[in-house]
Specification:
3 helices; 122 residues; globular; PiggyBac transposable element-derived protein domain-containing protein; alpha+beta; 4-stranded antiparallel β-sheet; 21% strand; PGBD
Length: 122
């Protein structure tokens, strides 16, 4: 694929309506449908073992247009989108489910990592 074709696709790709009122509160709304399809595919693609693990990951991105971009000093990729993941095992590292971190919530009781763990299990 040529660079111009790729840039044309990037300019025109669109998954959600910009006029949706949820765009003001949900930073991940534009990718939410893609995330849901990925999660469904991940669940159907592998039967997990008894041992599961939780992890956080960083999708590297320095783009100023990324509304979910965070800085984490301890990570090899300092800038990017943070993910909380439910993994099958340390050997396969197969991701069963993941949640995109969209920044600090207004309700401070939901900001603890244990709350993210509960969300991943549901």
């Amino acid at each position: 694929m040529s660079r111009d074709r790729f840039m044309d696709i990037c300019r025109n790709i669109h998954f959600n309506d910009n006029d949706d009122p949820r765009t003001k509160t949900d930073r991940a709304l534009k990718i939410r449908k893609v995330v849901e399809v990925l999660q469904k595919t991940f669940r159907e693609g592998y039967i997990p073992l008894a041992e599961l693990s939780f992890d956080e990951a960083m999708l590297e991105s320095r783009s100023s247009f990324n509304m979910m971009r965070v800085y984490m000093k301890a990570k090899p990729q300092k800038w990017g989108t943070k993910l909380f993941m439910l993994l099958c095992s340390a050997h396969t590292a197969y991701c069963i489910r993941f949640e995109v971190y969209c920044g600090k919530k207004q309700n401070t009781s939901d900001n603890h990592p244990a709350d993210k763990t509960k969300d991943l299990l549901l």
